[in-house]
Structures are given as structure tokens and as C-alpha cells.
């Protein structure tokens, strides 16, 4: 988790950027597979070309179908755009303390892992302790962790408050 948190210290999520490039590459491969399938469909009309492929590889109909399935698989893999794996803060310093972007990223990652494996509610004391172990130069208390995990956008705050409003009704 520390390595992932330090990788976003510059303010750029390199994993997200890599996944976006991989998605674009797979979409290009899907287009190329469709182009190959179109070529084999065209070649089916010419007996000399069709006989060549039939003799050395497979029939052009089979090759066309193979590349159509290949294109469909690439498009299926890229159906959803990649999501960021870690929240990257816009600010890296506060009140003279530099390097808070990686601290906040670590807190977010630790919260995600603990929530997934242990409980639904974040344990601020445990996350603060893990953060101090990973980054000994910083003194992190549970209150800082609570503030760091608080939603920072209007939509995020509304999503958190919405279940409370529905229980009162």
C-alpha cells in the first residue's frame, strides 16, 4: 500500500493512466480484428485467395468468424472505462506539512482494505497506526484519519447524508 501511495505523490495516478492506455490499445486491436474479418469476407469471393488460405491455414469463412469473435472479446474487455484505484488529492501540503497527498492516498487504501476484509465501518485508530508505521516522519491521529476519509465533494456528502434522511421519513 505504501508503494501505491508514494506513486501518486506527484499528483498523477500512473496505474489509471496505464489502464486507460491499455484500454485504447485493446480497442485498436478490436478494430484491426474487424478489418481482418472484412478482408477474409472479401477474399471469399476470389477462388484463388480462398484456396490458398484453405490449403495452408483454414477456410476463409472460419478465419472471418475467428476474427469477429476476437474483436467481440476485445470490445467486451473494454466495455467499462477504467476507474482510479486510489484517490489522488489536489493538495500536497497543509499548514507547512509537505507530502500529505501520499498520506491521504495511504489512508484511503488502508480504509478500503480494512473495510473489505474486516468490517463495514472504518477503524480510525487502526488506520492511524498503520499510517504512522508506513510513514514514521508523520504523526497521524484518528481525528486526521476521520477528516481524510470524509467525502470532499458535494455529491459525496449528499450520498452519505441520503440514507439518514430516508430513515426519518
Report on the structure:
- This protein folds into 2 domains: 12-77, no CATH class; 93-168.
- 69% of the residues lie in helices and 2% in strands.
- The chain has helices spanning 2-7, 14-43, 47-56, 60-77, 100-117, 124-134, 142-149, 154-168; strands at residues 93-94, 97-98.
- Helix 2 (14-43) packs antiparallel against helix 4 (60-77), helix 5 (100-117) crosses helix 6 (124-134) and helix 6 (124-134) crosses helix 7.
- The longest helix has 30 residues, at 14-43.
- The chain is rod-shaped.
- The two termini are 41 Å apart.
Helix and strand topology:
Elements: H1 2-7, H2 14-43, H3 47-56, H4 60-77, E1 93-94, E2 97-98, H5 100-117, H6 124-134, H7 142-149, H8 154-168
Antiparallel strand pairs: 1-2
Helix pairs in contact: 2-4, 5-6, 6-7
Could you state the oligomeric state of the chains shown?
A: single chain
What is the count of structural domains? 2
Kindly report how far apart the N and C termini lie.
41 Å
Number of helices: 8
Shape: rod-shaped
Query: What is the CA-based Rg, rounded?
Result: 26 Å
Helix content: 55-70%
Features:
169 residues; mainly alpha; 2 domains; two-stranded antiparallel sheet; 2 strands; rod-shaped; disordered C terminus
Brief rundown of the structure:
The protein is 69% helix and 2% strand.
Amino acid at each position: 500500500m505504501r508503494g501505491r501511495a508514494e506513486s501518486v505523490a506527484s499528483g498523477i495516478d500512473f496505474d489509471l493512466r496505464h489502464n486507460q492506455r491499455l484500454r485504447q490499445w485493446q480497442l485498436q486491436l478490436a478494430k484491426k480484428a474487424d478489418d481482418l474479418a472484412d478482408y477474409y469476407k472479401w477474399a471469399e469471393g476470389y477462388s484463388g485467395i480462398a484456396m490458398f488460405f484453405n490449403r495452408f491455414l483454414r477456410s476463409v469463412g472460419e478465419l472471418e468468424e475467428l476474427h469477429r469473435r476476437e474483436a467481440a472479446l476485445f470490445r467486451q474487455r473494454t466495455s467499462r472505462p477504467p476507474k482510479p484505484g486510489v484517490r489522488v488529492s489536489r493538495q500536497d501540503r497543509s499548514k507547512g506539512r509537505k507530502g500529505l497527498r501520499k498520506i491521504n492516498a495511504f489512508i484511503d487504501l488502508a480504509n478500503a482494505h480494512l473495510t473489505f476484509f474486516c468490517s463495514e465501518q472504518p477503524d480510525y485508530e487502526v488506520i492511524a497506526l498503520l499510517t504512522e508505521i508506513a510513514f514514521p516522519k508523520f504523526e497521524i491521529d484518528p481525528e486526521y484519519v476521520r477528516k481524510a476519509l470524509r467525502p470532499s465533494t458535494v455529491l459525496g456528502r449528499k450520498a452519505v447524508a441520503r440514507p439518514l434522511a430516508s430513515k426519518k421519513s
